[in-house]
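Appendix B. One record, verbatim.
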Amino acid sequence: MPPEQTSTPSHPAVDRVADALARHGLTPEIVWFDDAVTTAQLAADALGIEVGQIANSLVFTLDGEPILVLTSGAHRVDTDWLGAELGGVIGRASKDVVKAATGQVIGGVAPVGHPSPVRTFVDTDLARYDQVWAAAGHAKTVFATTFDELVRITGGTPRAVEPRGTVSP
């Protein structure tokens, strides 16, 4: 009897992320977890890293248009402050808006692999780390990258996402 074949799991959204990364010259290993890691802390614990190294992909609306904010897992986005900084009002995106803008579902939104470009802001606090981890299109997946690569592959704007000196809970 031949040995049992095992293969890497696959998912259409994860495949789109891998393709998008490859178009940018990146071929990181996509790590699959047994269980969903839908919070920064769960992902950090599973990887054995600091929570600040997790690049949360959060979709908001800015004056009704979807935006993507890649923020360090060590703090939260101050939407009132950031909206004022960007000259508009930031609101919470519904799950339908998230899915339409990214082709992915909340908990697994990657920085790339979206149906069309999404205006992106990359938290400058992520630059403190040599390596950061982002979701790869599914709540059970992540990949390693760097702050500079996140900015490059997303065409994102580096910026603070909360006032300096703020300590998040």
